[in-house]
Amino acid sequence: MGHRIEPQIPLGEAVKMLREEKRLTKAAVAARAGVSARWLRDVEAGRCNPTWANLRRVAVGLRVELTELAAKVELVERSH
Q1: What's the pTM value of the predicted model, to 2 decimals?
Q2: DSSP letter for each residue of the chain
Q3: Which of 6, 9, 31, 70 has minimal Cβ neighbours within 10 Å of its Cβ?
Q4: Domain ranges, residue 40
């Protein structure tokens, strides 16, 4: 069986990459998403497993479509 990586880690990396590409702060993304900056930090660190509703909020905060976020997660997963 191949090496498995927890899904939260690629998600967190993808969120951080998108946020940095758009030159947004965690505070700005969190405010737009309606979540706390601390929670967003935990998402980026791969320490939490967000619900579908919260993933939608994160996408809004990042100013991307949910499909773009999902595509970025897949890219990160393939790179590991």
Answers
A1: 0.90
A2: ------THHHHHHHHHHHHHHTT--HHHHHHHHTS-HHHHHHHHTT-----HHHHHHHHHHHTS-HHHHHHHHHHHHHH-
A3: 6
A4: 8-79
Amino acid sitting at position 51: T
CA distance 45 to 2: 23
Q: What is the token pair recorded at 71?
A: 């595509």
Q: How many domains does the chain have?
A: 1
Spatial contact of 52 and 75, defined as CB atoms under 8 Å apart: no
Residue 2 lies in a domain: no
Q: How far apart are CA 69 and CA 62, in angstroms?
A: 9
Tens-place pLDDT, residues 58-78:
999 999 999 999 999 999 999
